[in-house]
TrEMBL record:
PROSITE patterns: HTH_MERR_2
Residue ranges constituting the HTH merR-type domain according to the UniProt record: 14-83
Lineage of the species this protein comes from: Bacteria, Pseudomonadati, Pseudomonadota, Betaproteobacteria, Burkholderiales
A GO molecular-function descriptor: DNA binding
Organism name: Hydrogenophaga taeniospiralis CCUG 15921
Protein name: MerR family transcriptional regulator
Length: 159
């Protein structure tokens, strides 16, 4: 865990954690967490104990917010933040991270489409065969109890 440092008194243009959080649309606890996991540099502390950050941290937090909105992991976000400040590194690295994430998102979407088709078959089988019948005889519950995949049509509970 990174420690914050107390300083005599940071320059007045430095931002308190509350001001910074408000500007970028994060909760204060999120900023503390991002500091703890090393996504933003450790804060300095005023003599009053308040955390303060240079204004440049605001840009990093906006990048972090957009990375998280897109579902990048903390590790991917950390790497993208590092790339954003390193002129020696090539943007191909950022593309590789984004491509990897895009591949994972597409795989999740395919899985969700399979899930939707299965659930749709369960609902259709119930609607056509047993809706309104006794719940224990419902084709959905029967198939789930038996481990029957919704990929095959069921006869229904009330037919």
């Amino acid at each position: 865990m990174k420690k914050t440092t107390t300083t005599a008194e940071p320059p007045p243009e430095w931002l308190t954690i509350g001001t910074l959080a408000k500007r970028v649309g994060f909760a204060v606890s999120a900023l503390r967490y991002y500091e703890e996991v090393g996504l933003i540099p450790p804060a300095l502390r005023r003599e009053s104990g308040h955390r303060v950050y240079p204004e440049s941290v605001q840009d990093v937090l906006i990048l972090i917010r957009h990375c998280r909105d897109l579902g990048f992991s903390i590790d991917e976000t950390r790497e993208l933040v590092a790339l954003s400040t390193s002129a020696e590194r090539d943007c191909v690295e950022a593309r590789a991270i984004a491509q990897g994430h895009l591949t994972a998102v597409r795989a999740k979407m395919a899985e969700l489409r399979r899930l939707e088709r299965s659930l749709s078959r369960y609902v259709r089988a119930c609607s056509e065969g047993c809706a309104g019948g006794p719940a224990p005889d419902c084709s959905i519950l029967t198939d789930l109890r038996q481990g029957v995949s919704a990929s095959t049509e069921t006869a229904g509970c009330c037919s």
